[in-house]
Amino acid sequence: MAFAWKAAGITYNRYLAVAARVVRRSLKEGPRLQAERRGEMDLRFAKWQNGKQGEVKNLSEANAAAASELAAQEAKSS
């Protein structure tokens, strides 16, 4: 089987993230800590309206807030 990640039902990007995490965890203590810091990401986005940039937000925090709002709306409708 040429593409095990496809058979597992994950995307190539997810496959790479898992592989990178495994390699980082297999390193000795000093190099492992440096590699783990390089592996951290902080994604931000901003909504643009009428040619002006809105507030810059952290993607993970925005996703968590949206998920909690959705859960609250579903709880109200039940």
Automatic annotation (TrEMBL):
UniProt name for this protein: F-type H+-transporting ATPase subunit epsilon
Highest taxon in the source lineage = Eukaryota
List, alphabetically, the InterPro entries matched: ATP_synth_F1_esu_mt (IPR006721), ATP_synth_F1_esu_sf_mt (IPR036742)
GO MF terms listed in the record are: proton-transporting ATP synthase activity, rotational mechanism
Q: Which organism is it from?
A: Exophiala bonariae
Q: Name one GO biological process term.
A: proton motive force-driven mitochondrial ATP synthesis
Q: Name one GO cellular component term.
A: proton-transporting ATP synthase complex
Q: Which family does it belong to?
A: Belongs to the eukaryotic ATPase epsilon family.
Q: Which SUPFAM superfamilies match?
A: Epsilon subunit of mitochondrial F1F0-ATP synthase (SSF48690)
